[in-house]
Amino acid sequence: MQGTGSAQDIIHSKERIAARRRKAIKRDLGMNWAVYVMAIPVIAYFFIFYYIPMGGIVMAFENFKVRKGILGSEWIWFENFLAFFRSVYFWRLIRNTILISIYGLVYSFPFPIIFALCLNEVRSTKFKKVTQTISYLPYFISIVVVVSILNDFCKSGGILTQIASLFGDNKGALISRPEWFRSLYIGSNIWQHLGYNSIIYISALASVDQELYEAAYIDGAGRWRQTWHVTLPGILPTIVILLIMRLGQMMNVGYEKTILMYSPATYETADIISSYVYRVGIQDADYSYSTAVSLFNSIINFIIIYVANRISRSLSDISLW
Amino acid sequence: MIKRTSGQKTFAIFNTIHLILLSFIFVIPIWHVAMGSISDPMKLSAATGLFFWPKGEATLGGYRLVLQNPTIITSYMNTFIYVVSATAFGTVLNILAAYVTSRKDLRYKSPIVFMIAFTMIFQGGLIPNYMLVRNLGWLNTRWAIIIPGAIWAYNVIIMRTSFQAIPDGLCEAARIDGAGHFRILTSIVLPVSKSIVAVVALFYGIQHWNAWFNAAIYLKDRKLFPLQLTLREIVLLSTEQSIIADADGQDVMIYRPLIKYATIMVSIVPMMMVYPFVQKYFVTGVMIGSIKG
Predict the structure, then answer these.
(1) CATH architecture of residue range(s) B62-293
(2) What is the pTM assigned to this prediction?
(3) DSSP A58
């Protein structure tokens, strides 16, 4: 008897919960119907332009034929992936992607921090403002123009080719030589993004507590010691967060600039996974194979960001999620 | 203020010199192109190195050739159409998304937020996007440039962060006065969020002004090309037959470098004129993004 009583109680309370829920939903719709109306185009857009393409990834596991469609094409599971692993380009693409990423990180990550530190030492507000504004200039220029100018500088007789020949490199136009590709790619990236990437450090520096400097000064710390013991610890969280975010982009080297910059002469060092996906997928119309390559890239990327975040969390309590 | 020792003064001088040099490096490539674009075509085609001053007599001949060129005029118009319509569409949708996700009492808010934020971590990628545009029948149409990529999760998040900072009291008071959500959005939220709307519109606008890749994969018809794609054809692929044909017939190869520089200038001058005024909004955008990021 006791049992049925409590069972009834449960049924009752379940009903009550359900009723309360219905009431809450009704209240929510009554109050917020207009918000849901606004949400319709947003949800529709994200569904169509982000989630349908995500679903389209299944063609990585198919022998996709355009006239048969995604549902009608033959399933070949991991065949495309295996074909990629066996491909003669596999190691070259992995190597180029990782190297350009690591070099890019090592060379371009410190510059905005150093630039911000230098600007922080400037006393004239006007000089600071002007320098900062000039430093954003390259950010507003399109990749097409940046690569155009780079080409112009690196053709035979271009200024960079001339400078290289001053140092004894006389083998001609830098732009068509594989051994120069990474330096040019990363160098022009630094040029374009240095100012913009420093914004975040400049404002992190501005928020460092001024009293700490005075305390350090009273303790006898000079400018260098102040920078080392006050400024750097003050912006360390910012540096770590941005570093994790950069690591997350490790395998995500953008194809746009590579496609504009490279040529068959420089594929040896220039061709990366994403530019290969573009060539095989769009130019040769091998859709399912290139989707598989691209999915492989995304998965590796996801693993890297996860691991980087884990490491950072265990070392320093700073985490993206 | 803390007094400076002589060592610090030396450091300050070096620091200033180094920053001036750096500014010079930021500017010189643009300067080089600007000088090239007003050079004498004969001297220019033989010139090497960096151009500090125009080669030969300064002339606006290059600009005349470029601005009379129908391909460039058409692509300029196209870029204008793409930038205005994609930015308007993206910004409106972005405002709606930010308003929806910034409501505090919305029962089904978290799935909507998740749906938007997840697209920052994972996306379908190049080929599935291409297949979508193809299946929509948008290949070789303006829709392919305007609609896909019109809204990014990142911009939704920064606008949402800013909307969330609006005091509840403002919206509550309007509710009590009987205002609906559309009224609250247009007469309370938007007027106090002008600068963040400007930031987001700028992010979209500059992105669309500089975009070329979608146009390169979706468009075949030259009449639909945006400026950046035409620029790529002229400068990087050197397929400027159409341009050379316009250049008064004889000895046209000689004009190639001049046309290259003048075309680049024509494409960046609007941006150069606008950016000093908009850069402070950009800084705001980066800052809000970094708080939530």
Answers:
(1) Orthogonal Bundle (1.10)
(2) 0.88
(3) G
